[in-house]
Amino acid sequence: MYKHNTLLQESNVDFKNADHIIQVTFKIINDPKLMMTVVEKLHSSIIKSIDSLLYYDYLYKRISHIPTSAEDKLRLFRDYTIKKYNLKKEIIPVIKDLQDILEFRKRSPIEFVRKENLVICSSGYSTKTINVKKIKSYVAEIREFNQKINQALSKWRILKLKFLNAEFKFK
After folding, report:
1. What confidence tier does 170 reach under pLDDT thresholds 50, 70, 90?
2. What's the rounded mean pLDDT across residues 109-134?
3. What is the Cβ-side half-sphere exposure of residue 81, based on CA atoms within 13 angstroms?
4. CA distance 160 to 166
5. More confident residue, 88 or 2
6. pLDDT (average), residues 5-34
7. pTM of the predicted structure, to 2 decimals
């Protein structure tokens, strides 16, 4: 199996896990600390989706190489891939927000729950607040983004299957 298919499947699994946690598990347990797990899964899903598109374009020689750094991948995605696949540019701020939340959490010594919000506090006492409404908006944006990517790459699979079926009929 091609690497872009594997990455796309992993992305879909991560997204389904994040969606289930925020839609089902969170309602039952009602622990705001679950929101960080959702943020991590959403970030993983979106990064794997981007990598999937980049590997797909590399496979068909639309791009010369795949960058190794996350910033370069995001730049290539923003400058080339969004236009090619007719994706919404509103996904870029969502990616940046998710990255900022994860980076802020890595550097912060304290996080606590306050009124249904998860508050992450840095050593300089600057804070970042995460709530369910914000997470659900991220889930909605990423759902739409992943659906478009799945549609774009499924066209390739359908064409390949038609080609293989036609090839076997003529032999």
Report:
1. very low
2. 92
3. 26
4. 10
5. 88
6. 94
7. 0.88
- Please name the residue that has the structure tokens 């927000």: 97
- Cα atoms in the 13 Å half-sphere on the side-chain side of 29: 12
The strands making up 127-130's β-sheet, listed across from edge to edge, are 110-114, 117-121, 127-130
String of b and e for 147-156 (b: at least 16 CB within 10 Å)? ebbbebbeee
Under 8 Å between Cβ of 21 and 34? yes
Pairwise CA distance, residues 113 & 35, whole Å: 11
Read out DSSP for 52-91?
A: HHHHHHHHTTSSS---SSHHHHHHHIIIIIHHHTT--TTH
**Predicted pLDDT at 156:** 59
Q: Which residues contact 110 (CB under 8 A, 6 or more apart)?
A: 120, 121
147, amino acid identity: Q
**Cα angle value 158/162/166 (rounded, 5°):** 170
d(CA 34, CA 139): 14
Which of 74, 117, 66 has the alpha carbon at shortest distance from 93?
Answer: 74
> What number is the average pLDDT over the span 137-161?
83
Which DSSP string do the residues of 93-144 spell out, in sequence order? HHHHHHHHHHHHHHH-SEEEEETTEEEEE-TT--EEEE-HHHHHHHHHHHHH
Structure tokens at 21: 């946690």
